[in-house]
Design goal:
Layout: H1 2-11, H2 17-28, H3 34-54, H4 62-76, H5 80-97, H6 101-108, H7 121-135, E1 146-150, H8 164-168, E2 173-177, H9 178-184, H10 189-198, H11 205-208, H12 215-233
Antiparallel strand pairs: 1-2
Helix pairs in contact: 1-3, 2-4, 3-5, 4-5, 6-12, 7-12
Length: about 240
């Protein structure tokens, strides 16, 4: 629950507050089970990752009305089953208002972070953390102890064929701990790939199976991350 509330704060959204406050009161009063509270908060988080944080869509008032209406309906619902029906109806509405996969991918391709492009750092870290957590079977990571590593250098040389935006693209970024980050340093791609293969961290196959790393590979991996994010990590 805490993670979803933290994510909503990261997205700087307020439309959901009436609904979230009503849900949390129901949780405190034992009117909703923790699993049901976690599920609806997770659904709200996932919707706004796509709708707000990535696609940057703006509501004309319909989203606020949807949440306010759901909050009122939850408050007056008498039985536990009626309350769950309200939550299920809200989830279905979130699904219908979610951006289409193609629109999500197009905006996801614009995500970037480097020392030059710093505005989206926290969002990029959040996304990389969630993707990592979705795929790893090891111990949970502490995001505060992880650092964003650029597969191709942050400040690419002309010889690399990359510009600053391509180097900063999310498809060129992974999350590693600080000690591994120091090991990777400014090594070549193949040296980094071998280190990542032997490290006790999850790294996606797009990196591990590559033998060269340039603009085409970064674009392809960005699209793979977008598909993973839309269909698996932040599905509703």
């Amino acid at each position: 629950m805490r993670d979803s509330l933290t994510a909503m704060n990261l997205f700087r959204i307020k439309q959901q507050l009436p609904m979230v406050l009503t849900v949390m009161r129901h949780h405190d009063d034992d009117l909703l089970k923790p699993k049901n509270v976690k599920d609806i908060l997770f659904s709200v988080e996932n919707f706004h990752l796509a709708f707000t944080a990535v696609a940057s869509q703006r509501s004309s008032g319909g989203i606020s009305f949807m949440y306010a209406s759901a909050a009122r309906n939850l408050q007056v619902a008498g039985s536990p089953q009626d309350k769950l029906t309200v939550l299920d109806n809200l989830k279905q509405k979130l699904k219908t208002k979610r951006p289409l996969a193609a629109e999500f991918e197009a905006r996801f391709m614009e995500l970037k972070y480097s020392s030059i492009f710093t505005k989206q750092k926290n969002l990029v870290r959040y996304i990389l953390t969630k993707v990592y957590q979705q795929n790893t079977t090891g111990l949970p990571i502490d995001p505060e102890k992880m650092t964003i590593e650029h597969i191709s250098p942050k400040n690419p040389s002309k010889a690399s064929g990359l510009n600053n935006e391509q180097s900063a693209a999310i498809g060129n970024l992974i999350l590693v701990d600080q000690s591994l980050n120091k090991e990777l340093a400014n090594k070549s791609f193949n040296e980094k790939r071998l280190l990542l293969q032997s490290a006790n961290v999850w790294v996606d196959a797009a990196i591990l199976n590559a033998f060269n790393w340039g603009a085409a590979e970064i674009e392809a991996r960005t699209k793979l991350l977008a598909a993973e994010a839309y269909s698996n990590v932040w599905k509703i």
